[in-house]
C-alpha cells in the first residue's frame, strides 16, 4: 500500500484545458466580408482617383491643342501683317523712286532729241540728287570712307596702297561706296587701305 501512495505522488500534473480559440463559420464570414468591403472601397477610391487623373490629363491635352492652334493662328496673322507691312513699305519706296525714273526717262528723251552735253550732264546730276533724296527718306546714307580709319564693320578691304602720306590702315581709295540704313550696314564700302611702303 505504501508503494502505491509513492506512485501517486510522482504522477505527472494534469494539463489544464485551454479556452477554445476556434472561430465559428459565421464569425469568419463576417471578418472576410469586412475585409472584402474594405478592399472594395479602396478599389473604388483608386478607380475614382484614376478617372479624375485621366480627366485632368485629357483637359491638359485639350488645352495644349488649343494653345497650339492659337499660336499657329497668331503666327499666321503675324506673318500676314509683316507681309502687308513690307508691301506698304515697298510701295512707299517705289512711290519715292517713280519721279526719279520719270526724270531719268526725260533725260534720255532729251538725248534722243539732240540735247547738248551740258544739258545732259545737268539732267543726270539732277536725277542723281533726286535718287539720293529718295534713299535718304528711307534712312539710307552713304558710308564715309576715304580718309577714315579702316573699320571692318563698315569697310571691305580689296587691296592695299603703299603710301606714307596718311597713317597706316587709313582708307585711301573707295572702289565701291557702302551704305547704311539707319545704324545697319546694308552694304560695306569696298576700299583700298594704306600700308607703309
Structure commentary:
With 197 residues, the chain is α+β, with helices and mostly antiparallel strands. The chain has helices at residues 2-9, 25-112, 117-137; strands at 140-142, 155-162, 171-176, 179-181, 184-187, 189-195. The protein has a three-stranded antiparallel β-sheet with strand order 1-4-5. Strands 2-6-3 form a three-stranded mixed β-sheet, with no helix packed on it. Mean pLDDT is 87; it is low at 1-6.
Entry keywords:
three-stranded antiparallel β-sheet; single chain; 197 residues; three-stranded mixed β-sheet; alpha+beta; 59% helix; disordered N terminus
Tell me the number of helical segments per DSSP (H or I, 4 or more residues long). Answer: 3
Question: How far apart are the first and last residues' alpha carbons, in Å?
Answer: 152 Å
SSE class: alpha+beta
Shape: elongated
The beta-strand count equals 6
Q: Looking across the biggest beta sheet, what order are the strands in?
A: 1-4-5
Low-confidence stretches: 1-6
> For the CA atoms, what is the radius of gyration?
51 Å
In percent, how much strand structure appears in the residues? 15-25%
Order of helices and strands: HHHEEEEEE
Average of per-residue pLDDT values: 87
Biggest sheet record: 3 strands, antiparallel
Helix content: 55-70%
Amino acid at each position: 500500500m505504501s508503494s502505491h501512495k509513492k506512485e501517486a505522488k510522482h504522477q505527472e500534473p494534469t494539463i489544464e484545458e485551454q479556452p477554445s480559440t476556434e472561430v465559428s463559420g459565421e464569425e469568419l464570414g463576417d471578418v472576410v466580408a469586412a475585409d472584402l468591403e474594405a478592399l472594395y472601397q479602396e478599389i473604388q477610391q483608386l478607380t475614382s482617383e484614376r478617372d479624375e487623373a485621366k480627366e485632368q490629363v485629357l483637359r491638359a491635352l485639350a488645352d495644349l491643342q488649343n494653345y497650339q492652334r492659337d499660336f499657329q493662328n497668331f503666327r499666321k496673322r503675324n506673318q500676314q501683317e509683316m507681309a502687308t507691312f513690307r508691301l506698304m513699305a515697298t510701295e512707299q519706296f517705289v512711290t519715292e523712286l517713280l519721279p526719279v525714273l520719270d526724270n531719268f526717262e526725260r533725260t534720255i528723251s532729251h538725248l534722243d532729241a539732240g540735247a547738248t552735253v551740258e544739258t545732259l550732264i545737268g539732267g543726270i546730276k539732277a536725277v542723281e540728287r533726286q535718287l539720293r533724296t529718295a534713299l535718304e527718306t528711307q534712312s539710307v546714307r552713304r558710308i564715309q570712307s576715304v580718309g577714315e580709319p579702316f573699320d571692318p564693320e563698315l569697310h571691305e578691304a580689296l587691296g592695299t596702297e603703299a603710301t606714307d602720306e596718311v597713317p597706316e590702315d587709313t582708307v585711301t581709295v573707295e572702289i565701291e561706296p557702302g551704305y547704311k540704313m539707319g545704324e545697319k550696314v546694308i552694304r560695306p564700302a569696298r576700299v583700298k587701305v594704306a600700308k607703309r611702303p
